[in-house]
């Protein structure tokens, strides 16, 4: 500043200390405006036009997240700080205030530049399958939180003129309070790392967690929450740490396998189960899927009965085919020949324990698609066929009496 007074005195202009400070501040302000105009109106605008017309994805992502805008603003703060050191006398109030403001500006926009850089890395990584399987968003949010705390401490220490170490040592007494305030972010950060390391969950996975009413696709994995879009288009928010502390079901394995399980049973009225008569056997032999089984089974039973001298005077003597056993074999053959059922996965028709609702016959198979609509159509088609053909085996589906059944009984008694 003394150099400025001497410079003006050479031209015969005498200025006092206050005027010289005002002139220096005007020079710094004007120079800052010129730098701002060059950076934002010329350099960055040219870069944005090139990025918008470019085919390079990374240029577009950088532009969208305003990385260079924030770097430019941080650079302007550095220039102001350098000017204040060069032009203003060290130790004066004006110099101290301007330098502190410039340094606060630099720290703030350096932090925002880091945020933009992390956003650029995250958005760019989502274009790759390997990186999209890692919950980077929660990790980056943790980095942002830690960076904000560090920069915040540095800014406060710069304003009060104390070392950051003093503030940090003072925070030790508030550790319990900080742990309580930042409990969810800390737990979420740890949970995000565990989810990533163990590959437990990724965006797009079908997550089912009845405790929180979640049953749908994962749309966002953040530092403190995971968002799930349920199949009814409602949004469920789950604490990130709950995915580590509680159990949840991830259906991604089913989606990747290419087959979705059918596991449903029908209840057979046990009073309709009986041995097949010769007429019934002859009629069922006409079924293409059953003929090989009936022929081989009939020969096997005939050989057994002959070997053991079993006569036909009683159904308790020898072996016979049952309608429910033949029905079970038919369903197995039907599924084996169904074009939408996978043959390389588990396929069986089994009996479950009988109960008050009859004898359950369970279909256990996998479709060759995981698409929900197609899966439901295939499953419905199979069971519609089962209900339609069960009467051919002399079987009845167990069903609780309906109002129509009660009315029929009443009418019969009235007659």
UniProtKB/TrEMBL annotation:
InterPro entries: LSM_dom_sf, MS_channel_1st, MS_channel_C, MscS_beta-dom_sf, MscS_channel_2nd, MscS_channel_C_sf, YbdG
Record's bilayer topology term: Multi-pass membrane protein
Mechanosensitive ion channel MscS C-terminal domain ranges (all copies): 331-397
GO BP annotations listed: cellular response to osmotic stress
Localization per Swiss-Prot or TrEMBL: Cell inner membrane
GO MF annotation terms: mechanosensitive monoatomic ion channel activity
Pfam families linked: MS_channel_1st, MS_channel_2nd, MS_channel_3rd
Keywords: Cell inner membrane, Cell membrane, Membrane, Stress response, Transmembrane, Transmembrane helix
The Mechanosensitive ion channel MscS domain, residue ranges: 184-252
Transmembrane segments: 20-39, 67-88, 94-118, 139-160, 166-193
Gene3D superfamilies with a match to the protein in the record: 2.30.30.60
Cellular component annotations (GO), alphabetically ordered: plasma membrane
Residue ranges constituting the Mechanosensitive ion channel transmembrane helices 2/3 domain according to the UniProt record: 143-183
Assigned protein family: Belongs to the MscS (TC 1.A.23) family.
Entry protein name: Mechanosensing system component YbdG
